[in-house]
Amino acid sequence: MGAAPVADALAERAYEPVIGLEIHVQLSTRTKMFCGCELSFGEQPNTRTCPVCLGLPGTLPVTNAEAVHFGLMIGMALGCEPAPRSIFHRKNYFYPDLPKGYQISQYDIPLARDGRLGDIRIHRVHLEEDAAKLVHAGASGRIHGAEASAVDFNRGGTPLVEIVTEPDVRSAAQAAEWLRLLRVTLRQLGVSDVNMEEGSLRCDANVSIRPAGEATLGTKTELKNMNSFRFLERGVNAEVARQEELLREGGAVTQETLHFDPRTGALSPLRSKEEAHDYRYFPEPDLVPIAPTEEMLERARSALPELPAQRAERLESDMGLVPDTARLLAFRSDLGDFFERAAAARVGDDSKAIANWIVGELVANIGDADPADTKLEPESLAALVGMVREGTVAGSAAKDVLTTLVAEGGDPAEIVEAENLGAAGGDELARVVDQAMADQADAVEKIRAGNDKATGAVMGAVMRATEGRADGAEVQRLIRERL
Amino acid sequence: MTGDLLDLTAAQAGQRVRAGELSASDLFEAWRERAATDSLNAYRWVADAPPPEIAAGAPLGGVPVAIKDLFCTEGVPSAAGSRILEGYLPPYTATAVEQLAQAGAPMLGKTNMDEFAMGSSNENSGFGPVMNPWDESRVPGGSSGGSAAAVAAGLAPWAIGTDTGGSIRQPAALCGIVGLKPTYGSISRYGMIAFASSLDQAGPLTRDVTDCALLFRHMVGRDPLDSTSTGLPEEVRLPDQERLDGLRFGVPPELTRGGVDPGVAAVFEQSLRHIEELGGTLEEVSLPHSDQGISAYYVIAPAEASANLARFDGVRYGLRAEAGDLASMYEDTREHGFGDEVKRRIMLGTYALSSGYYDAYYGRAQRVRTKIAEDFRSAFERVDLIVTPTSPTVAFGLGERTDDPLAMYLSDFCTVPMPLAGIPAISIPGGLSDELPVGIQLAGPAFSENRILEAAYALEQAIGFDGSGARG
Amino acid sequence: MIDRDQVLHVARLARLRLTDEEVERMTGELSTILDHIEKISELDLDDVAPTSHVVAMENVLRPDEPRPSLPREGALGQAPDTDGVGFRVPSPGA
Ligand SMILES: [Mg+2]
Ligand SMILES: [Zn+2]
């Protein structure tokens, strides 16, 4: 008694996910965070190490100036306030991939804090060093009968920037979309390869749910290392569903770290519970504070390119593009750059049309490739779009011209001429329309009776006769004229 | 001939080599043979051949130097007194050792020490205690006990050690030699196996103040491999002043009264008279937070050590205990590899940093540290140097204090405040009490080493201490 | 004061396996030391800034210029157990 109505009430309740993201970005400096070893790109294991990054006794870290510079750039790009004086801490725990028994990271005074990217507030941006890689040695590598692993310290000490958002994300889709924005922003900065599959961009999510409309936060779980946008979305959705089910059944969420297995869709606890983690942070005595000088700040500031979010805004407001097109061009800076060069090559108001040609036909043609790597010149695209506007080439024929330009380059006007792709018009087109209407008498009757769809049959005949060189709008006009 | 040679101070021997009166390799060989006779357990390793090439013109003239086993030396055992590093051969050499070799002081051997520099008696070495050359039933002090004993016994012309809470000055005092703990940052820590990173500092242990200045001169320098190294703003001068006119000496009651043995107090009083006779003035200055210095020290040093010693995990070097699972591998390796004192300090430091205790222990200790630095700052507004005994007692018997760690810790009260403030201090022999050496400590503001060395030199001349009794 | 359970917890954090006898002794010794250290709680330190560095330096930075790494034999040379390529350890969780 009484339980059923409560259960019903719980079951009906709508929950709202509250999601915060923690992103680790491997910086693309030449050397590691605290030593002079070059960063590793698939070299043989343990060939990019030195006494410092192996944590040999007596060695000391020295901070890479370029990593600080990149960190400041990221902080600024995310609208954060760089700390006047930030310090490093030691984060203590034992693991074979952590050579010193502690990670040098930033704790209570990060490099930068309080920013925003898109709709999501940034809590903090800090510098730290990456751990090494632990690889399973397989059957050959047994020690005393138990499984063995092998440690490769090549990655150990790679500079990382950790970006922590406020819990502003409300859905898995929003998380993935925002992470895409972050990735293009970082790519635009040129501070990282931002490759999720290769681990240079890694995302953890803190997920909790709460009854819609309530302000208090629920117990959160931490989802580790979802190494693609798709997995992030699926992992967060799975966890939100799991938490909802738990609460609906009257249970409670326990704070834990979970691993999402993209193959099975299962979430499993990553660390056993008795493994109390108490990181015993304390200020790293081997390093001195980072207090960015005006010179360091200015250098970071002037290294900032226009960022995707800003560019999207500018393309919308200054060039009159619709939001989706503006974002696509801004987030793929190669397309954006091509667009701006094409738009600049043309006097007149072809910007929107050029943009549409790029996000439509050109992308269909070249996929993820950079248009600058094809034979197509921005000026040629602008010229082609102009010809379409003037009606000298029909839309469908222009698509063929574009394909030729991408593959072989050249002058669009000359291609139109040489391949006889010029728009059919004048007497020629009038004659074709007359003929088509005569051939499609039935259809013409239907049009007269008010069936607009029947126009298609006449139009089709005209197009066949002109091999697509006719401008659709012009044909429509000619048909109406003759009714 | 060899006997005469070994009676020379390092500066004198170096001068003869530079003047072409003595060959550097003969000198090295004489010292090498002498070091090989070590019966004090002062050495862990002695060179079996001279280095390939000693530049006769080098400023240190080829006078070999004994190196505390805390310094990493390429291809040469470097165990920091710990079983966990037994047999470890580093692939690189510590900056300070490298600099000395460049300046013409090749490595003679590696000296025994308290495990990871944790101790004041050298009884915490994983390789057995060192004996005091003045009385072999007594400790040499620690943690640089092997270096101090070697120099005092004439087993090395000079040596280097490290000081975290007194580890150069106290053994120097107990062995009747000179030991300098320089300003934090003046000498690179690169290659020093870390105990407490914010306190550790290398320094010389020598027969006299001149040797001390000479060796120190070639240890200092800003090192790009050590972010906290500063070098010294001025060149180290060889001291030559025999007077102390105009110098004001502060005598802090906190470090000179309670707990100081009468015999030590008598020698200390005597040295205060010498200061006055040489034209210096004495003034009482207070260091009110010294009492809390020991407490702060025994929070900060173990806390840093607990992190510094986490790297000894059996993965990349050193001892590894056989075990089938990772947790047992860690725990067995560290259980077998570390001695009692090291475990005690790791426990203390881990506790002081652990969740819920950080503020009460580590956080407060760092604030006490600020107060101690302020105490010194205001004292040095009134005086140029502070003078105290180095150790409240003379060398004590082996095994006498091992059962009471706290009592052992508390005996460091004269030497612990200076590293907490990062300031330099020297210990020189002040005389004997019960036929055992007593050390006098002079401390000054950061980077005042030249002033300290000058004053120590003048005082040394007046005291006229004869250390030959320990050289056998 | 520190009790037996705390000693065991701290030993676990520090990856020290203590024998029963050591736990016993450590509990007593650490309690004595901590009782003494607690003197620092008597001071009024509210307005005192903590000192983590005695050197007043900032921005000690290294140019992003590569230095040679160790050859692999050098990196692995002192390791208790290797497979010739990596440092062998018992698998975590195994
Ligand atoms: Mg992190
Ligand atoms: Zn390295």
Structure description:
- The complex is a heterotrimer of chains A (483), B (472) and C (94).
- By secondary structure, chain A is α+β, with helices and mostly antiparallel strands.
- Chain A has 3 domains: 3-302, no CATH class; 308-418, no CATH class; 426-482, Arc Repressor Mutant, subunit A (Orthogonal Bundle), CATH 1.10.10.
- Helices cover 41% and strands 17% of the residues of chain A.
- In chain A, helix 4 (229-248) links the parallel strand 12 and strand 13 (257-261).
- In chain A, helix 8 (333-344) packs across helix 10 (378-390), helix 9 crosses helix 11 (395-408) and helix 13 packs across helix 15 (455-466).
- Chain B is built from 16 helices and 11 strands.
- In chain B, strand 2, helix 4 and strand 3 (107-111) form a beta-alpha-beta unit.
- In chain B, helix 7 runs antiparallel to helix 16, helix 10 packs across helix 12 (340-353) and helix 10 (290-308) packs across helix 13.
- Chain C is mainly alpha-helical.
- Chain C has a domain at 4-37: Glu-tRNAGln amidotransferase C subunit, N-terminal domain (Histone, subunit A, Orthogonal Bundle), CATH 1.10.20.
- Helix content of chain C is 35%, strand content 6%.
- Chains in contact: A-B, A-C, B-C.
- The interface between A and B is large, with 32 and 48 residues.
- Strand 2 of chain A pairs parallel with strand 1 (61-62) of chain C, so a sheet runs across the interface.
- The site of zinc ion has 8 residues of chain A, from loops.
